[in-house]
## 1
Amino acid sequence: MEGLNAALEEIGTRAVRVTPLHGGDLSQVVRVECSDGRALVAKAGSLVAREARMLAALGRAGAPVPEVLAVSGQVMLLEALEEVPASPQAWADLGRALARLHACRGPGYGWDEGYAFGRVAIDNGPAADWPDFWARRRLLAAPEALPADLRARLEALTARLSDILPARPAPALLHGDLWQGNVLFAPGRTVLIDPACYYGHGEVDLAMLTLFGSPPKAFWQAYGPLAPDWQERRAAYQLWPALVHLRLFGSGYRPMVEGLLARLGG
C-alpha cells in the first residue's frame, strides 16, 4: 500500500506485518501489526480524508465509530476491532445508535462535499425538495451510464416520485451506505464503518439495511416506531444502491433493479 509507511511514521510506529482484509472491492484495506504492539487498519483511496470527516460527523452525533488515528495523503489509519457474532443486545445497540443518528438534523438535504463509490460519483448538492433530491442526485444522477430501456423506466418513475416520497421529511443525518457489511460487531461495541454521509430521509438507511437481509426484532424494537407506510417507500430507496451495484458489478444486478422498478409500478 503506497503511503502506508509515511502514515505510520506520523503516529510513531512502523509495520511488522500487513494482511489484506475483506471488503476491499472499492478501496484497499489492510490490517497492520505494528512494531509497538498495536494493531491498526489502514485504508487507501483518494477520498479517505472525506471519509474521516464523515466518521467524525457520525461520532459527534453519538454514533459509535472506529477511532481515526491519522490521515496522511491517501491513507487513513483506524483502530483495529475484532469481529464477533452479533447478539440480540448488539442489534439493539445498533437500533439505538441509528435512532440517535437520525435525530441529528441538518439545514437541508445533501452534504457540503461530494463522494463516490468507486467510479460512481455521488453529487450531494442541495435540491428544492426531497423527491427532487432523490430523483436528480440519486436515481437519475448519471442516466448515460444506464441501459436505454432502464433509463426510460427510471425517467417515468422520477416524474411521479412526489407521489411516492414525502416532500419535506426531516433532514436526518444518514450513514448513507448502511448495508450489514458496514456494521462491525465487536466485543461490547457495535460500530459503523465506511460511511457515505448526507442529510436525508432516515428511511434511506433502513432500506439499505434490509436490502440483503433483515435485522432481528431486537433492532426494530430499539430503533423505535416507524411510519406505518414506510415499507411502501422502501423499494424507491433500495433502487439507488441496486443501480450502483449494476454500474459497478455488472448485469447480474439487473434483475434486482427490474424487480424494484416493478414493485414501484415502473
Note: Residues 235 and 260 are 6 Å apart (CA to CA).
## 2
Amino acid sequence: MKKSLLALLSGAALSVATVAFISIPITAQEASVEAYALTKRQKENVNLLIDRGLAGNGAYELLESLTTEIGPRLAGSDAEARARQWGVEKLKFLGFKNVRIETFEIPYWARVVEEASIVAPFAQKLEVTALGNSVATPTEGITAEIVRFETLSDLIEAPMTGFEDKIIFVDEIMTRTQDGSGYGWAVAKRSGAAREAGRRNALAAVIRSVGTDRDRRSPHTGNMGYTDGIKKVPTAALSNPDADQLTRALAYAKKNKSGPVTMRLRVEVTTKEKTLSGNVVGEIPGKTDEIVVVGGHLDSWDLGTGAIDDGAGVAITTTAAKLVGDLKEKPTRTIRVVLWGSEEVGLFGARAYAQAHKDELSKHVFAAESDFGAGKIWQLQTRFGPKSAGKAITMARYLRRIGVGPGGNEARGGPDVSPLRAAGVPVVTAQQNGWDYFDLHHTPEDTLDKVSPEDLSQNVAAYAALIYMASEMEGDFRD
C-alpha cells in the first residue's frame, strides 16, 4: 500500500539495471520515436478487452465477496488466513492454474484498547487509534501535559530536554493532491513523532491523522517503527477534527490562562514474535516461460473492511487477468496474479515473493500493482528501457479512449512490486484519481459503499488492455 511510500523512496536500493532506465517521453511528439505496431488481431483484442472491461465483468461482485465474507484482514490474523483461502477458491473458480499459497512468517501486532481524552481544563473524549506496531501504555494509561508542535520539523529542532513528563503532539496537516504526492512527507510523522518523543524521553506521542478529511471523526491508523537504542513510546493518531479540537483547547487555555492542557492516553496491544502469513498466486499459462505479474495486496487494516485499500486492487487485477485468459488465443507470456500478504505492516509479502522467485526474476518482463483505491485511472506511467519507448507510446494510445492520458517513464509500479523494480523488472503505474483516497485511507470509512462500480470497471478495462499488450509485445521491456 501506498502507506509505506516514504520508506520505499528512501530505503529501496536501485540495481544497475534499474539505474540504466532513462527518462523517456511517453507521447509521440518526438519524431525519432515510433509507436510499436500491433497486428490487426492484436488491435482487435485490445479493443475487445476494453469493451468487456467496461461492461459487467465481475470485479464489483468479487470485491463485495471479499469485504463481506472476510471483512477486515489484519496481517497475520485469522481473518487474513481466511482471506488466503478465499483467494485460492476464487482463483480456481475463475479458471486460474497453478493456484497456491506461498507462506512466510511475520511479527504480529493487534490493537486491544485505544482511548484518549482531555482531562483538564476542558474535559472531553477524543477519537483516537493506535498506530501499528505501537507499544502499550501502562494498564491505567498515561495522563500528562500536552506539548504541541505544528510540524515534525519543529519537533526535530526542539531542545532535547524538558519533555520527560509530557505527551508530544505533532499537528502537521496533509496536503490533498490527485496523485497522492502529499502522502510521502505527511506519513513521516508516524515514525518520526515516536522517534523524536523517545529521544526526548517523553511519555507518549500523538499525531494528527495522516489523511485529508476534515469532517469525519475517523482516525487513520498505519504502521510505524521505532529506532534501536531509542526509548519506545506509545504512539497514536487523533482524527483530524479531534486534532483541531485539541489545538483549539491549547489556544483557549493559553489565552484564558487556564493552566496546562492534560490528556489521558490508554493503549493496549497484543503481539507475537512470529505468525504465519502468505501470498496467494495463480496463473494463466502462456506459450513461453516469461512472466507478466499483476496484483493487489490481500491484507488490510482492521478498522474498515479494506474495500479501497486494497480489496479494489485485488478485484481489478484478478478480473482483468481473467478477461485476458478468456480470449480464444492463449497468451504468449504467462500471466501471474499475486495477492500479496502483509503489505500494510512492512511489505513482507513483497519481499518474500522477490526472494522466493529470485532465480526467475530475469523472466519477469512486466509488473504492476493496483494499490491506490478505486478511482478512475487518468494517467499511464511506465518504467521501460530506452528501446521500448515505442511500446509505452502504443500502450498509452489504446487507453486514450477511456480517459487515460500519457505520463512519464519513472513509474513506481506499486509498493509490492518495489523489490521487483529494484531488481530491474520493468513496471507501469496506472495512476488512479486519488483526490479523496486519503479521506478514507486506513479508517473505519474504508468500506464497499465508497467504491463506484463504473470507476472499477474502467480500471479493469485499462488493466486488461495493459496485461494483454505486455503479454503480446515482442522483445524485453528492459531494452
Note: The longest strand covers residues 97-120.
## 3
Amino acid sequence: MKVKTRSRIQPFDWITLSIYFTMIGVGWLMVYVVGYNDGYEGDGLALLTDTTIGRQTIWIGISLLLLLFTFLVEWKFWQTFAYLMYGFGILLLILVLIFGTKINNSTSWFTLGPVSFQPSELAKFGTCLGMAAYLSNFNTNLKNNISQLVAAGFILLPIALILLQSDPGSAMVFLAFLIPLYREGLDERYFSVGIIALVVLLFGLVYPLRSVVLCLLILMNCLLLFNFKKYRFQTLLISAGIVGGSIWAMMEGHYGQTIVANLVLLVIFTFSHWHLNNRSFIWSALGGLLMCVMVASGANFFFNKVLKSHQQDRINVWLRPEICDPRGSLYNVLQSKMAIGSGGFQGKGFLEGNMTKLNYVPEQATDFIFCTVGEEQGFIGTSSIILLFFLLIYRITVLAERQRSKFSRVYAYGVAGVLFVHVFINIGMTMGLMPVVGIPLPFISKGGSSLLGFTLLIGVLIKMDTLNELP
C-alpha cells in the first residue's frame, strides 16, 4: 500500500500571511487615527510625503515589495549566507556608533535626508540566521562548553554594541534568542540560574543593599536547615524563629546586628553539613549565595553610580512609581494607562479618542500606540490585538515544529522569540508593567525600520516553510 506524501513544494502558509496582512491593516488604521487631528490636506504627493499616514503608506508598500522579494529568493540563499548576514548586521551596529544620528538620547539611527534607519532591526534578522546556521551545524553540541560560549557570543556581541548606543530596549530584545537555545537542548539549569539572578538584580535596584544581603542570608540559612532531612519539624520551627526574629530586628533598625547573627548561623549550619559529608551541597549553596550578593551589589552600584538620571527615572517609573514625579518622568505612563482605561469595554469609537486627538500621550504613533487602540476600541480592541499576536506566535511555533531542516526550525523559534519579547515589553510598558525602553509594537507602530525588519523575518520563514518536505 502506498503512503501519500505531501509535495516538496507546498503552498504558502495562508494562515500566517493572513495574520500578517491583518496586522499591517490594523497598524495603518491606528497610525491614521493618531495623525488625523493634524489634518490630511494637500495634493497626492504632499499627502504621501508630508503626513505621518502618507509616509507609513509608503513604508507598507516597500514592505510588501520586500515580502515578494523573500518569496522569490531561494531559501538556501539565506542558509548559505547566514554568517555573512550576521556579520553585516554587526558591522552596521559598529558604524552607527561612528556615523549615527542621536535621536531620543540614543545614537542608533542612520539618517539620510528625511529617511532614518535603525540597524538593530537588520541585526535581529542577521542574528536569527547566524544562530540558526551555528546551531544546525553538525559540530555544534550545546552540552559542550565551547559550543555554549560561541552560542552566547552570537547573542552578547550585538547586545554589547547596542548598549553602547544607549538603546537598552533594543538590546533586551536579543535575549529572545535564548528561546531557540532552550528548544535545542541547552541545560535548563542555566535558565534557572538566570531567573534567580534576574530576581536578585531587580531587588538590588529597588531596595538598599544591606536589606537584600540580609534577606539572602536568611534564605540561605533556611535552605541549609531544610536540608537536615531527619528533623523536618524542628527545622521548620527554627526557620520560623530566624525569619521572625530577623524581621523584628529589622523593624527596630538593628540591621548590623541581624546580619552578624545570620552570618554566625550560616557558619554553624555550614560546618554541620560539612561534618555530615554534604560537601557538594555546601559548595553549591555558598557559590549561589556569593553569586547573588555580587549581582545585587553590582546592580546597586550600576544604578547609583553608572546610570544617568533619565535612565534611573525609567527604572523608578517601573519599579518605584510612588517616588516619581507625576508631571515629569511618570507622566507618559500615567497618561497611557488613563487612555487605555478610558476606553472601557467597547471603546469610544473610531476617531473619537479625546486623549489621542489632544496628544496627551507622547509618542502615540510609535512606542505608545497600544493606548490608542485601548481608548478607541476598548477592551475588545486590545484583546483582539493580543489574540492576533498570540495566534501569530503560536502559528510560527507550529511551522517550526514541522520543519525537516534544523536550520529552519531554529530560525523559526528565533522569529517567534523576537516577536514575543517585542509584544510583551511594548504592551507591558504602556500599562506600567515593564520599563519604558522605547521599542515598537510589531506591525502596528509607525516606522519603516521595524516594519521592514519584521516583514523580512516573516517572509523568509514563510518561504522556508513552502520548501519543507512533510510525510
Note: The mean pLDDT is 85.
## 4
Amino acid sequence: MTHYDVLGVSESASTAEIRRAYRALARRYHPDVVGSGPSRARQEAERRMAAINLAWSVLGDAEKRRRYDRELHRGRESPSHRPGSARVSWVPGRPHPGFVPFDFDDEPDVGGPVVLDDDPIHGGRPVPRWIQVLPVGFLAVSLASFALYVVTSLRVLLGVGGVSFGLATVSFLVAPMVAMMRSSPPRG
C-alpha cells in the first residue's frame, strides 16, 4: 500500500487535493474522535492515524514527495514489485523499509567515508591528542597496577595504582574542560 493509497488520492493529485484528503481522514480517524480507553476501535484508529500522518508528512512536502515518487516508480520497475509477486509494505509503528538515516553535517564529501569533525569552533586552537588520551592512559596504568598487586602483593604497586586512579579521575574531569577552553575562539 502506497502513501497515495492511504490518503485515497491518485499519484497525479495536487497538493491541495492531498491536503483535503488528509484533513478529511484525520477528522474521521483521529483517536480522540473515536473515544477514549483501550478499545479495539481506538487501537485501529491510532494505527490508521499513524499511517495517515506518515503519508501526509511525505506527500505534503514537495521534496519528500519527489523522492518518494522516484522510489515508488523505481520499485515498480523491479521484478519483486510486478503483479503477482509479494510486496513489502510499511507497517505503522515500525521503520519504513526504505528509511536510511543520513546527516549532511557528518559527511562532508558525499559518497566518501564518514569523517568525525574534531576541528575547533570558529578559530579556536586544536586539542592535542595527549590531552585526549591522558585519562585513559592513567586508568590503564591503575588497572594494571592493581592486577599486578593482586598477583605479587607488592605494596608499591598498590600505591602506584591508587595514585594513577586518582590522576585518572581528575584527568577525566579536567580534560573536557581544557578541550572546551582551547576550542573556543580567543577573546579580544
Note: The helical segments are 3-7, 15-29, 31-34, 40-59, 62-77, 129-152, 155-183.
